[in-house]
Design goal:
Elements: E1 16-19, E2 25-30, H1 36-44, H2 48-55, H3 64-71, E3 78-85, E4 88-98, E5 111-118, H4 127-141, E6 146-151, H5 156-163, E7 169-174, E8 177-183, H6 188-210, E9 214-218, H7 227-237, E10 243-247, E11 259-260, E12 263-266, E13 278-281, H8 288-298, E14 302-305, H9 315-330, E15 334-336, E16 342-345, E17 352-355, E18 363-370, H10 373-385, E19 390-395, H11 404-413, E20 419-424, H12 430-441, E21 446-450, H13 471-480, E22 484-486, H14 489-501, E23 509-514, H15 517-529, E24 533-534, E25 538-539, H16 546-558, E26 564-569, E27 572-573, E28 579-580, H17 584-596, E29 603-607, H18 611-620, H19 650-653, E30 683-684, H20 687-707, H21 721-735, E31 741-742, H22 745-753, E32 762-764, H23 768-778, E33 782-786, E34 800-804, H24 807-821, H25 824-827, E35 829-833, E36 839-848, E37 852-859, H26 862-867, E38 870-874, H27 879-888, H28 906-922, E39 926-936, E40 941-943, E41 946-950
Parallel strand pairs: 5-6, 9-10, 9-13, 10-12, 13-14, 14-15, 18-19, 18-20, 20-21, 21-22, 23-24, 23-25, 23-26, 26-29, 29-30
Antiparallel strand pairs: 1-2, 2-3, 3-4, 4-5, 6-8, 7-8, 11-12, 16-17, 16-19, 27-28, 31-41, 32-35, 33-34, 33-35, 36-37, 36-39, 37-38, 39-40, 39-41
Amino acid sequence: MQTPSDRHAYPSHWEADVVLRDGGTARIRPITAEDADRLVSFYEQVSDESKYYRFFAPYPRLSAKDVHRFTHHDQVDRVGLAATVGGEFIATVRFDRIDSRGMSASAPADEAEVAFLVQDAHQGRGVASTLLEHIAAVARERGIRRFAAEVLPANTKMIKVFTDAGYQQKRSFEDGVVRLEFDLEPTDRSLAVQRAREQRAESRSVQRLLTPASVAVIGVGRTPGGVGRSVLRNLREAGFAGRLYAVNSAFGEGAEGAEVDGVPAYRSVRDIEESVELAVVTVPAERVPQAVAECGERGVPGLVVISAGYAESGPEGRERQRELVRQARSYGTRILGPNAFGVINTSPDVRLNASLAPHPPERGRIGLFTQSGAIGIALLSGLHRRGAGLSTFVSAGNRADVSGNDVLQYWYEDPDTDVALMYLESIGNPRKFTRLARRAASAKPLVVVQGARHSGIAPTGHAVQATRLPHATVSALLRQAGVIRVDTVTEMVDAGLLLAGQPLPGGPRVAILGNSESLGLLTYDACVADGLRPAPPRDLTTGATPDDFRAALVDALSDDTCDSVIVTAIPWVGEDGATASPEGEELAAALRAAAAGCPAKPVAVVHVELGGLAEALAAATRTRPNASAPAPGSERCAHPSPSSPLRSSRGDLNRPAERLPTAAAAPDSQDRPSPAQPHRIPAYPAAERAVRALSEAVKYAQWRREAKEPGRVHEYDDIDEGGAALRIDELLVEQDDPRGATLAQDDARELLGRYGIDVRDALPAPDPDAAVAAARALGYPVALKTTAPHLRHRADLGGVRLDLADEEQLRRAYAELTEAFGKPVELRPVVQAMAPRGVDTVVRAVIDPAAGAVLSFGLAGAASELLGDTGHRLIPVTDRDAGSLVRSIRTAPLLFGWRGSAPVDTPALEELLQRVSRLVDDHPEVVAVSLEPVVVGKDGLSVLGASVRLAPPPARSDLGPRALPGY
């Protein structure tokens, strides 16, 4: 129970759990009067040197006055925060508001003096850097814009904390003290520093789970069988490189020296003398708290909780899960699970199988993350069957703590992972996931399949932010971030195999060759349907030999007009008409030999009833690291000599061929090299599957090339950002509604005009005479429209009359509308000057609480709405984003001269998209904008209708200090 402060209620929203540099966690919270004993105990454990650096003089102990001053804060002008582990202080920070003379002050003074003290045992963990982020956020909330700190020159660690934070600062030296002053307004550099620290910390927390030097399995039964015994067996059989311990409170007293399956057995983790770096918890849910407490007291940094009975089981379990996370975090421990399937690391230095998978995958270059244990089992089996090895496997279960975001942080810099596969049933923080996915995809392919995407609800046990965005929109945003978004786990495996074993294609041009004309034509049709550009298939006839395949593949790979090759194969047909299937190894060897001569182009195989070929390719293509790779630039195709050993034995097939690095380490991968791979040619039992995988690789390669030049956000000289901000503040005050409100038409037109977005006047016409007067003011020809909600933007229902050239036509149209649809008071008719002819489009922007600000574009009309033909981009959009958004919809050809029509002014449309993006990005109070219709003509465009909604700005968790999701 926290004591209220002198002037404000206890600010519970300042509490946060954080991940530190070494992967451990700590809790940050305000210091209160109840913390006096904790503060004294903390101070006693600080070295004399650290005390000297803090107070500039020997200061062995705190006086009663000091303790009172450091624990009593008004939470406005004096604020103190503490970082705690196990309920005890490990570091403190405080600020005191000061005036221009350095004296204590109150608002409106906007400067404060800040000071830190970190326990020596926790220095170097990034505690002070994390506290600085949080105390700076608190200061900004309280109207403080600048910090000042005085530091002794010898205190280089603290000086580095300030100088590395990325804020704009001023440094001076006087009277033997370094004085640092810095503005607290976040900068691009401070945000980059914060995110780099976040990446290192979260990556390290996952690394600790995957590379432990010792593992204790808690809940190992005394007799064979049970989950704990199974996990222990899997660890042993995988050849875990570290120390293993079996733990069960049911083991008898004095069990020292006892063993279970050759593993030392203990009643409690506390009884183990050596350090334990990972505990796998398999006891029933009601006994998990005791296990967590013992691990926390023993200093175990990571837990894999396989135990079920948590949020997936209902409200009681959901509360049990919250308490589990709170308990673990209080000890600085991270949790995978609960209800997890486990983790696997195939590195020869680790050989960890802390999971329920009895047969761990072979070592490879693919990382796999799942939230479902059942899907995890299926994927492990499918990847193994097709010859793919894994680097790491993480099955997070309810992902109450460690999530896909954390694993992405780890994979981003993991040298053993070239391709990342993720099965997600929910995305807890879409805004962060999109940001991390974009960065990860710039270095290595990320393939994602999302389950439960149409149910509209999160799977039981998953805590997620609410989102109003449909799945199609989320998918579009993921693709914008470079994610390879597929619909099924089969497609995920198909794409992963191609990306892990083959280089990225240089373009969409595909060569097709094989011994079946029909299968070649099916492959051709599939390529066309998926947006590829196939050449006419080359038919080698059903009598083609492995030598014929080799020669044809060499020719195709040598062709400069080809970016990739698909080989199709069916059983051979003999002279007597009987089918035969020669050793698949022979054809596999021929294809590998040909592909090895041109390692810069991807090759895929489609086979029908040739299981031997698939097995031979799988056997020869286990994803093992290779010792060396040719230097970039040695990409020209080399023709194998006629004496090349095509009819080799299986042992020869297992020998990897030299080749360039795969997709993750292609020459355009931002200088992130990867070990070379054996030449792995993926095989598919259907043309559509091979083509779909290749199509995803082509689109991803194009994204990688474009990501190097992401474009820029235009400034536009005519934008009045300051004037818009003032007007928005006035409108919010006038509304006085915390939920926000839609602006009146005149106010919306004025606000949009400050961003260079002109909306055509629409004058109200409550009766025929008012309509005639409006038309005279605007000038003929005019349009007469209803604005009633049920008829608005529905020209197909007849609520719009266009090209009214004179008063007679206007009065007749007015009478027809009121006769057909009702009284003017119900129809709310307006008169608007006619715009030049063009294509009707719709531009919208909305701020989603989970995904952030999203810009959408499509053609106007029921057809586009019915088909869901709308493109989406995250705000802010660059000029490149705007161009791709316009071209992303299926009906885009209508804008570019379809069937001989005149192309419209798409540059003007792209500029409008960027202006709307700027408005929403500059002013988070603008929570929704709708421009409908926007008529795009040959020269320019006309915005005929606009709606703007204002509301108090939603919280931006991505811009605040680092913190784990609250529980």
